[in-house]
Amino acid sequence: MELADVRDDLDRELISEREIVDKIAELCRAIERDYEGRRPLLVGVLKGAVMVMADLARELKLHVDMDWMAVSSYGKSTQSSGVVRILKDLDSDLAGRDVLIVEDIIDSGLTLSWLLGNLQSRGAASVKVCALLRKPDAAKVDVPVEYVGFDIPNEFVVGYGLDYAERYRNLRGIGVLAPHVYS
Ligand code: 5GP
Ligand code: MG
Ligand code: MG
To answer: Do 159 and 11 contact (CB within 8 A), yes or no?
Structure first.
């Protein structure tokens, strides 16, 4: 679906499909340089990272393995608590692997910070992070993110994997949700 198809639900369009495609290519060139001759394990965090994982993996001129994890932050508030529960664990053994976590968005950074520690403790040779989007609050937690697509304002965005109440994940672009949708 196009951003234009849900125009009334959006405050504005933030990132177009074209801009995402170009950015993914740019990120891939950097990843190819850093992982030359290696075969990283891409770990996608469900469900938001499905689109970025699919596009990133296909654009990469590297052999990769792909695996998935589903995690949930405790608590129902819109704020991440930092206490994380694994809903679906990886199928892969991480011992000696070069792991690249693929994320849709880093907001508080608390989920990612926990994930980094968790994956590192499994004996990976390296654990790095690629996130399509990053919000300013992410800077408050000290999580190193090697590959960032776009730094965006502190607003609630949907599309390209990102949902509001499970809607809008299938938008080709990314937009800022209009307040009337959630109030
Ligand atoms: P945090 O970095 O705060 O621990 O949590 C990141 C998670 O919160 C993301 O994976 C995503 O599920 C959700 N999230 C944070 N900001 C947004 C946003 O602007 N839009 C949507 N749809 N989800 C968000
Ligand atoms: Mg995510
Ligand atoms: Mg969500």
So the answer is: no
Say yes or no: CB of residue 102 within 6 Å of ligand 1.
no
> What are the beta bridge partners of residue 157?
176
| Number of structural domains the chain divides into | 1
Does the residue 175 lie in any domain? no
Domain CATH for 62: 3.40.50.2020
Confidence (pTM): 0.94
Asked if 144 contacts 112 with a C-beta cutoff of 8 angstroms, the reply is no
Q: 131: CA distance to ligand 3 center in Å? A: 15
Structure tokens at 24: 């993914």
Ligand 1 pocket, residue 108 CB under 6 Å: yes
Domain that holds residue 105: 18-152
The verdict on residue 97 lying in a domain is yes
Would 58 be classed as within a structural domain?
A: yes
Nearest atom of ligand 1 to the alpha carbon of 135: 16
- ipTM score for this prediction: 0.95
pLDDT tens column, 93-122? 999 999 999 999 999 999 999 999 999 999
Question: Is 113 near ligand 1, meaning CB less than 6 Å away?
Answer: no
Helix (H, G, I), strand (E, B) or coil at 172: coil
Residue 161 lies in a domain: no
**Catalytic choice (9, 55, 104, 107):** 107
Q: Which of 140, 61, 51, 59 is nearest to 102 (CA)?
A: 51
